[in-house]
Amino acid sequence: MNTQQLEIRNKQLASWNTFSPGWAKWDNFTMRFLETQAEQIISHLDLRTDDHVLDIATGTGEPGLTIASLVNKGTVTAVDLSDGMLQIAREKATILELNNFRAIQADACELPFEDGAYDAISCRLGFMFFPDMELAARELLRVLKPGGKIVTTVWQGPVDNPWVTIVMRAIKKYLEVPAAAPGSPGIFRCAQPGVLTDLFASLDCSEIREIEIAGKMACSSVDEYWNFMNDVVPPVVSALKVVDPEIRNKIRQEVQHLLGTDSNVNQKIPFGARLITIKKPA
Ligand SMILES: C[S@@+](CC[C@H](N)C(=O)[O-])C[C@H]1O[C@@H](n2cnc3c(N)ncnc32)[C@H](O)[C@@H]1O
User: Which residue CA neighbors atom 15 of ligand 1 most closely?
Assistant: First the structure.
């Protein structure tokens, strides 16, 4: 990897280690929010009970932990850059008594595994953070058996994801938020249709399918939404970390206004993701 890619990796590592306590605190909420994507990934993987599966960018363990409960004669190796996130995944595996689940710290661009070691690969919401997406795609294909499948999800664009754009709009009303450099890591890096399809097609994969998944983030109150976004979502945390209490309060009020409610009633806020299924040529 070149200096710029190493810099991205180091920034991502520091950032996800900083956010891991927030992810631990909100784990149940986050896993409910992202459950549809886990279900779709698992259903498209066509797993057998003795499969050896790699879950890339596993974070606090999903969808790897659910897969481990299904491949009960096989194994799941869960990989993430952040030791803070992996510690949470390991604790969950212990509570769930999943002895076929192991968590390993590594970069998706440099996997410490033999060629063709895995039957299938899952990756929920990881690709957009990798230092070099092509290097990562090549590594995933290298460690996958011929004929094996990779199934991954990434976010669609801002229009389909009010769960994050609502708070970002409120922030931008009061604060300057520097625009991300095009192609740099971030939640909307793979938002355009075809980004991952084209990447894997350029690596000689021909059986590739891309579908859209829509769902809702269910919040019991505006406060729950606000607190979750403040603890878990990187661009929101970064923007609000140095803001004074008066401005923070105005942003919180703007969020409530944009959610279209005066009261702390249930909220269902839409999200849109892309699911990409790639089959490695046999
Ligand atoms: C949005 S979280 C997704 C976590 C989990 N898959 C889920 O859906 O709940 C993104 C994860 O990607 C991990 N990550 C970022 N860059 C990575 C890299 N180069 N290699 C492996 N994991 C990486 C982060 O540490 C973080 O845990």
Answer: 129
Radius of gyration (C-alpha) of the chain in whole angstroms: 19
Residue range(s) defining the domain that contains residue 210: 3-158+185-216+271-279
168 located within any domain: no
The whole-model pTM stands at: 0.95
CB 34 within 8 A of CB 99: no
The number of distinct structural domains making up the chain is: 1
For residue range 84-131, what is the model confidence (pLDDT) as tens digits? 999 999 999 999 999 999 999 999 999 999 999 999 999 999 999 999
| CATH number of the structural domain spanning residue 99 | 3.40.50.150
Which of 36, 41, 65, 81 maximizes ligand 1 atoms within 8 Å of its Cβ, making it the mutation to test the pocket? 81
The pair of structure tokens assigned to 12 is: 């991502």
In the reported structure, the alpha carbon of residue 8 is separated from the centroid of ligand 1 by a whole-number distance in angstroms of 13
Asked whether residue 29 is assigned to any structural domain, the reply reads yes
Pick the atom of ligand 1 nearest to 38's CA.
Answer: 8
Phi, psi of 102 (to 5 degrees): -125, 150
